[in-house]
Design brief:
The chain is of the alpha+beta class and 409 residues long. It folds into three domains: 1-170, Alpha-Beta Plaits (2-Layer Sandwich), CATH 3.30.70; 178-233, 5' to 3' exonuclease, C-terminal subdomain (DNA polymerase, domain 1), CATH 1.10.150.20; 247-408, DNA polymerase, Y-family, little finger domain (Dna Ligase, domain 1), CATH 3.30.1490. 38% of the residues lie in helices and 21% in strands. It has 14 helices and 14 strands. The strands form three sheets. Strands 9, 10, 11, 12, 13 and 14 form a six-stranded antiparallel beta sheet that branches. The chain has a five-stranded mixed beta sheet with strand order 5-6-1-7-8. A three-stranded mixed beta sheet has the order 3-2-4. Strand 10 (286-296) and strand 11 form a beta hairpin. Helix 4 (78-92) packs antiparallel against helix 5. The longest helix has 21 residues, at 263-283. The radius of gyration is 23 Å and the shape is globular. The two termini are 28 Å apart. The model is unreliable at 351-362 and 388-409 (pLDDT under 50).
């Protein structure tokens, strides 16, 4: 079987790089993208100067400010991230149709058909992303997806100077096991904290030490997962690059900075989330058949409700109307809410839709298109529906900062 050539592309501190394009004064400074420090806001991404000060993603913003008092906190511009991500993926498709996007800022490419030197090709891709889109990225190149991804991580970790790493790390065919052998076990895909704790209790601390174990030995302890761990530790991964993922659902969630029981604010939040879901449907050429509501109470109990529509829709108003109906079925006056989410599932692409939402008038379509145009030009929060928003009390701290594309299978 011919050796594959897989490139893993990872945009360095992607949200921060886009924010620097929007505001060049941020360049070279410690800043973080995320929610307000006055509540439950967390760091979604942070600049490399901030990382040198101990700040990292998923950290409470209040803690980040204690570590780095001069940290600048920037609210995320998610429409801009989506747009830039799409542009990167379009650029990658110039090289091969075998592009598998695994997150808003990461993708695998199968470039096995190229006959030019691998490093030259990788550097060419990196330079085009930088020159055309002004975005830094790091690349890992190997014979399979597993090792390519780890190669990217190793390259990024080796450059902790406070600047974007823009690393290119290549693992030659046949060197996979040697490359992995000295790395800590937590670097290997599939090893979480509990598995790592068990392995370390048995004196296994490097990937190479896993590779030395027999498949039967670890299979006895971990079942089929144990056998898979040994194969991965030896650099074996036969997964192909999957060039398209079927979207299952699209959703948006928001965590309030303080538990919220004001009906106007809760309805306004449902309106905002419904608009965002509808817009993402239209940008992806999808309609959906089932509207879903998610609520988390202050005690962290989480519930969800859903309602199937008679006709598939991409209409903000219909999504909002159904979300409100679901909300009213579970919420009682005065009850506080910690998190609220709106989603839609049962997605149909425009090529397979037998019937679409039939608006009551052309005016509905025109209004929707105008809203989309304004938000495309000026950002998600440039315009709002007139529904009692009381902007001074709007929730802070988006809880799914990475959910900028349809959730995939």
């Amino acid at each position: 079987m011919p050796t594959r050539v897989i490139i893993h592309v990872d945009l360095d501190a992607f949200f921060c790089a886009v924010e620097e394009q929007r505001n060049p004064a941020l360049r070279g400074t410690p800043f973080a993208v995320g929610g307000s420090p006055e509540g439950r806001g967390v760091v979604s991404s942070c600049s490399y100067p901030a990382r040198l000060r101990g700040v990292h993603s998923a950290m409470p913003m209040s803690q980040a400010l204690r570590l780095c008092p001069d940290l600048t906190v920037v609210s995320g511009h998610y429409a801009a991230y989506e747009e830039r991500s799409s542009q990167v993926m379009e650029l990658l498709l110039r090289y091969t149709p075998l592009v598998e996007q695994i997150s808003i800022d990461e993708a695998f490419l199968d470039v096995s058909h190229y006959r030019i030197e691998t490093r030259m090709l990788a550097e060419q891709i990196k330079n085009e992303i930088r020159n055309e889109l002004a975005l830094p990225c790091s690349l890992g190149v190997a014979s399979n997806k597993l090792v390519a991804k780890i190669a990217t991580d190793v390259g990024k970790a080796s450059n902790r100077t406070g600047a974007y790493p823009t690393a290119t790390t290549i693992v030659a065919p046949g060197d996979e096991a040697v490359f992995l052998s000295k790395l800590p076990i937590r670097s290997l895909w599939g090893i979480g904290p509990k598995t790592a704790e068990i392995l370390e209790s048995r004196g296994i601390r490097t990937i190479g030490e896993i590779a030395e174990r027999s498949e039967e030995d670890l299979e006895k302890r971990f079942g089929k997962t144990g056998r898979d761990l040994v194969l991965r530790a030896r650099g074996i991964d036969s997964r192909p690059v999957i060039c398209s993922h079927r979207a299952k659902s699209i959703s948006q969630e928001l965590t309030f900075s303080r538990d919220q029981n004001d009906l106007m604010i809760l309805r306004g939040t449902l309106r905002d989330l419904s608009d965002q879901v509808g817009r993402r449907l239209r940008k992806s050429n999808y309609t959906g058949t089932t509207v879903r509501l998610k609520l988390r109470w202050p005690d962290f109990r989480t519930i969800s409700r859903q309602r199937k529509l008679q006709i598939p829709t991409d209409s903000d108003d219909i999504i909002f109307s159904e979300a409100v109906r679901l909300f009213q079925s579970v919420w009682t006056t005065g009850r506080s809410v910690r998190l609220i989410g709106v989603g839609i599932s049962g997605l149909l692409h425009e090529t397979e839709q037998l019937t679409l939402w039939d608006p009551s008038s052309k005016r509905d379509v025109q209004v929707q298109q105008t809203l989309d145009d304004v938000r495309d030009r000026f950002g998600e929060r440039a315009i709002y529906r007139g529904i009692g928003h009381r902007r001074g009390n709007l929730p802070m701290g988006r809880s799914l900062l990475g959910s900028s594309t349809p959730d995939a299978e």
